[in-house]
Amino acid sequence: MIAIVAHAKDLAIGRGNELPWHVPEDLRFFKKKSSEFVNVLFGTNTFNSFKGFRLAGRKMCLLSSGNDSLTSDYHFKSVSEVLKFSQSNEIIIAGGAQIYKAFAKHITRFYITRIDLDVDEADTFLFDYTDMFELCSVIETGDNYSIEMWVPKNV
């Protein structure tokens, strides 16, 4: 499985169900990379953060155990349902924190934008992936960000 995320120095990924920064290069990379996949997986909070906005050319997949009335293209109730679906369908994991953690051991490529920023009052954080993953390549760098690909460590 493939995953994509952006985080601040302290692994913050959200504040008030929104990105706590605006880095256009990261948004462009997200659009480009997620467009390579038909299906983009979100948890409820991340799905809701789109406020009804649809990702052009991509199917929005929701993982939620609840009976959400959200308008996703696919609604999965469990990690095992997503894993079964992913056996015959490409899927990219796009958040949030609980979703990344739930699929961590299944991620084979992790596209990570590291934002050189301290976030005040962040309320959502990525797990410490550096124990499980190692830097494979740097894709792009800028004044306040680095877009990288990480892969599982050989244990």
TrEMBL record:
tRNA processing among keywords: no
Segments forming domain DHFR: 1-155
Keywords, comma-separated and alphabetical: NADP, One-carbon metabolism, Oxidoreductase
E.C. number: 1.5.1.3
Signal peptide stretch: none
This protein's pathway: Cofactor biosynthesis; tetrahydrofolate biosynthesis; 5,6,7,8-tetrahydrofolate from 7,8-dihydrofolate: step 1/1
Name of the molecule in the record: dihydrofolate reductase
Organism: Pseudoalteromonas marina
Taxonomic lineage of the native organism: Bacteria, Pseudomonadati, Pseudomonadota, Gammaproteobacteria, Alteromonadales
